[in-house]
Each structure stands twice: as structure tokens, then as C-alpha cells.
Amino acid sequence: MVVDDGVVDELLHALADGTRRDIVRRCLVGAASVSRLAEAYPMSFAAVQKHVAVLERAGLVSKERSGREQLVRTDVDAVRRARDALDQLEATWRGRVDRMSALLTEPEEPAEPRD
């Protein structure tokens, strides 16, 4: 599966922050209101809202209104897409390292004598 670089950039940006990764983890277990999430962090409600907005733009979470609250849910498929993107990056770099290793372990060809 090939993932668009813009999508990968957005996913990795969203997951680059520890608070956002924690929000994704908390909302995998079950939906949580933004206000409930805000209680868990030493930051303002507005700051948590901004983190949720970054995750939402990346497609990692969705919000739905339930009465006066906004419930945040993690999109499991988006987490899988992030995992696929990371697997692709790992495969690319492992291939490069394997090729470099092969080049470094090849026996040197003797230099031709100069007259």
C-alpha cells in the first residue's frame, strides 16, 4: 500500500506530540469528552481543544456532539494507516541498510597494476 506523502506528513505531525498520542490512546478505549480529556492534562481546556483539532485534521480522531459535550473517538483505521506508513518507512530504510551492508562486505577487487 502506498500512502500519499501529505497524508503521512499530517499523521506523523499529529503523532509527534506526547499529549496527542495519549489522547489517541485514551480514545481507543472509548469515547471521551473534550472536557474530560482536559482534566487529565496540566494545560488549559483550549490547549487540549487545539491538540484534538490537530488529531482531527489528520483523521486520527473524530468528534461528535452528545448533548452539550463533544465526544472524541479514535479512528482505528487511521491508526492502521499510520502504522502502514511507518512500516513502509521501516522497509525502505532496512533495504537501504542491507544494500550498504552488502556493499561494505564485498571483497575489494585488486587494483590493476600501473605501468
- Termini separation: 55 Å
Task: Kindly state the percentage of residues in helix.
Answer: 55-70%
Portion in beta strands: 5-15%
Structural class: alpha+beta
Shape: rod-shaped
Helix segment tally: 5
- Low-pLDDT ranges: none
Please outline the major beta sheet: 3 strands, antiparallel
Rounded to an integer in angstroms, the radius of gyration calculated over CA atoms is 22 Å
Total strands: 3
Oligomerization state of this entry? single chain
Spatial order of strands in the largest sheet: 1-3-2
Summarize the SSE layout with pairings.
Elements lengths: L4 H11 L2 H12 L2 E2 H6 L5 H13 L3 E6 L2 E6 L1 H30 L10
Antiparallel strand pairs: 1-3, 2-3
Helix pairs in contact: 1-4, 2-4
Structure description:
Helices cover 63% and strands 12% of the residues. The chain is of the alpha+beta class. Strands 1-3-2 form a three-stranded antiparallel beta sheet. Strand 2 and strand 3 form a beta hairpin. The longest helix is centred in the C-terminal third of the chain and has 30 residues, at 76-105. It is rod-shaped.
